[in-house]
Amino acid sequence: LVLVVDFGAQYAQLIARRVREARVYSEIVPHHVPVAEMLARRPKAIILSGGPSSVYAEGAPSIDASLFEAGVPVFGMCYGFQLMASGLGGEVARTGAREYGRTAVSVAEPGTLLADVPAEHTVWMSHGDSVTAAPAGFSVLASTATTPVAAFENVDAGFAGVQWHPEVLHTEHGQQVLEHFLVDIAGCRQTWTMVNIVEEQIESIRAQIGERGHAICGLSGGVDSAVAAAIVQRAIGDRLTCVYVDHGLMRQGETEQVERDFVAATGVDLKVVDAEQRFLDALAGVTDPEEKRKVIGREFIRVFEAAEAEVLGEAVKETGETVAFLVQGTLYPDVVESGGGAGASNIKSHHNVGGLPDDLEFELVEPLRTLFKDEVRLVGEQLGLPPEIVWRQPFPGPGLGIRIIGEVTRARLDLLRQADAIAREEMTAAGLDRDIWQMPVVLLADVRSVGVQGDGRTYGHPVVLRPVTSEDAMTADWARLPYEVMERISTRITNEVEEVNRVTVDITSKPPGTIEWE
Ligand code: XMP
């Protein structure tokens, strides 16, 4: 275990991911956690992240100097580098020499940390203060035009640091430097693999659910719930029941991927609830986006809970158990953001489902609680899940319901499904799936436009392509799709989808536009 101490910058999660890419398990701790508590977890190494502040600023986050006396290797980055320097008796000063963005660094002496890194290379910096003198016993490894001490190490003590951000994409050789610290200085073993993750999770799920417990998992068609279910299935077999609510708002082929391909790959016991008509009835006449979301959310919970009561009611009758387990695909970023630790979850969710015994308690099973999204996909591959599920791009819970501008009807859904399927096919054929974060296709169902096809006038609907690039969906840019790809999508949709006679592309970034239209 490597602990990444978070000083409030946005970089801690990225650092933790990079450590794991080096096949060493890592977790994030907020800087205000007492050092004794951090050490009690017996970390093999501690990384001090960057932070927004100057070490001299009032109220600047700090770390108790006892950290440096515990015999645990420490790596400081940016702000963490300065904390290390000042905590170990070096000097940090406001030199007025700020560096932001791409910066050239010169390696004077590679030592262990910068071994095999080119003498001149480019790194990403973001700092106002600078280390002006390294602590006693440290060798200075690198400098920049304005920062005399940009990297240092004391290999015997297990300490090293860099002024730059090795974790960001724009820093050359960042991963190599991080691995030199982890492996050559801290002596970490690179054993964190997807095979180990799956095995560990299976063990702990068995321990949590016990010999007789029954678990239920809602499948959405997305990667998180699919991987969570597949792991739990490995642990407890047919004592897991998956429920898939077919609300009729999925894209072409997605329900089959769950019903047929997912079941074939995992052998899970699946209960499909065909609720299409119910959703269409509930959505009849609804055009307001928020109202649509409310209706879809409400119906979903009702249908799911009824299925849950049926499945668990049976199981409780058979086993007499008083605890039911609910599997959820919670990911590590959600855990970090809600301030929770990454230990086993013991949260009880509040449930009040008609048809179940009053004293039945629900306990959450969260097999992905320690994982990042990219790790979840690797685990999914490891478990042999279909690539369409493992690599599926984000798709909103309310489905195509919020991609039809206007009332949602079956005929409109069919139109949109056809157009969307063509767009997805062409994106895949062009090899763009992993470059594009997401590409909603939106049907402007209440808008008509005039066209001409063959000899005749048409009066059909436009569709909008909304290709975006993004890191986290909080901000996004419109993706510059190659013209040939847009052309093929446009030609095929207007030829093959009757009633669609115009294809447009949305070139709005987020903000101001959201990714979805509703
Ligand atoms: P917006 O439209 O807010 O979307 O820019 C950001 C990301 O969230 C997805 N999204 C949803 N996901 N339920 C979901 O599970 C929803 O109600 C929902 N609305 C938007 C959207 O597809 C994009 O990836």
Explain this structure:
With 518 residues, this protein is an alpha/beta fold. The chain folds into 3 domains: 2-185, Rossmann fold (3-Layer(aba) Sandwich); 194-390, HUPs (Rossmann fold, 3-Layer(aba) Sandwich), CATH 3.40.50.620; 403-505, 2-Layer Sandwich (GMP Synthetase, Chain A, domain 3), CATH 3.30.300.10. The protein contains 14 helices and 22 strands. Strands 2-1-3-4-11-10-9-6-7 form a 9-stranded mixed beta sheet, sandwiched between helices. It has a 5-stranded parallel beta sheet with strand order 14-13-12-15-16, sandwiched between helices. Strands 17, 18, 19 and 22 form a 4-stranded mixed beta sheet that branches. The longest helix is centred in the middle third of the chain and has 31 residues, at 289-319. The structure holds xanthosine-5'-monophosphate (XMP). It catalyses: XMP + L-glutamine + ATP + H2O = GMP + L-glutamate + AMP + diphosphate + 2 H(+). InterPro entries: Class_I_gatase-like, GATASE, GMP_synth_C, GMP_synth_GATase, GMP_synthase, GMPS_ATP_PPase_dom, NAD/GMP_synthase, Rossmann-like_a/b/a_fold. GO terms for molecular function: GMP synthase (glutamine-hydrolyzing) activity. Catalyzes the synthesis of GMP from XMP.
